[in-house]
Amino acid sequence: MVIDVVYTEYVYDWYLYSISYFLNIFCMAYSHNSGSRFSNRSNSSSNRYNNSSRSSFGHRSRFGGTGGGGRYGRKKSGPKQLDQSLFVKVAKPTPAAEVVISHTFADFGFVDWIQQALAEKGMINPTPIQDQSIKPIMEGKDIIGLAATGTGKTLAFLLPLLHKMTNNPKDSAVILAPTRELALQIEQELHKITNRGKGIYSTVCIGGNPIRKQMFRLSRHNQFIIATPGRFKDLINRKAIDMNSFSTVVLDEVDRMLDMGFIDEIRYILELLPKNTQKLFFSATTEGKTKQLMETFLVDPVSILLSENVSSNNVHQDIVPVTRNDNKMDLLMDILNKDEVKKVLIFCETKIAVENLYRDLQQHGFDVESIHGDKTQMHRQIALKKFKNNEAWIMIGTDVASRGIDVGDITHVINYELPRTEEDYIHRIGRTGRGGKIGWALTFVKHQ
User: In terms of residue numbers, what domain contains 276?
Assistant: First the structure.
């Protein structure tokens, strides 16, 4: 049985809710017998997401306090404790002059229609990851591309693949992405270049959309199939995919796919591909499992390492200490009411937490949207569109659902609940401080 992201999040939320339910019963019984030490100050059915605090965010949070991190662990071995110093850093922007670009787009020798499309969009110079990736991809080499989120990774593989497929129309590529949003975002980037009029066909295969419609679209020749791993494996099992037809496979944000538990699906897919299939692995960070996967399947890859496992230099990072006497919701609203807070992405750990916070902020008059696995694909796309168009200036989401958010003008990322790992934290704060701008990342940390 294929386990999609939505199902995984559902099971996980059910598990957390069950624990919370029984803990509440225990706490109520304990309070009755020993003086009501625990208090339920939330309007929701569970106080698991309410750290019960009341204060204002100000100078006292600056580099301050002591406290534990990472108490929300999913792994059976228990949560990973994150050093609080991870959340505190002064931004040190890297001057653009320090980045050396060796090519212009014209140097790569793209076919005429790609050159024309780039010229019409005023695109002359590639980003560093594009500068170093395009030529070896055009030469058919395997790639390890390690670069931060928002650095142009999508066009780094789309442009050379479009060039190759124009010259070899029977070629096709499968692009695997961790979330529905990222898969749709990749297709949007593809359409911006092709304008749907170059004989280039693509199909997006993701959960939340009718699978039979996707199977019908797969009956024609698609140069690009963009999919999440779970849905793609399901389509393989339904005999809707010819694995021998692919000349290239792209794993975008492979580290995140492995972290989400897709290791078995990815191995299954890679093992079914022809041995001479070109493999392109792109990621913002690398871990042990990612390295093992690369060593197993890549052949003499070209390594392009433009990002280390560190947070963005363009992001001021700080903590928001939450004491026993504080109200966490009041702290958050004090931050959101500051003039410098223009566009905000707030992270919670689960769908339940996202919806609780969404309702609370909405009731207080904030223009807010939410995104998580229980929402239909249409609702998720509408929420993202409103956030991009500034119809809502606050977006709340889980790590999984927020993975595909690519909005350049986010001023603040707020970790309302702690990330599980350092990699999760890096991915979260990478949503701000883009395009040479300075961003803020604020992390709520419980203090005794």
Answer: 109-305
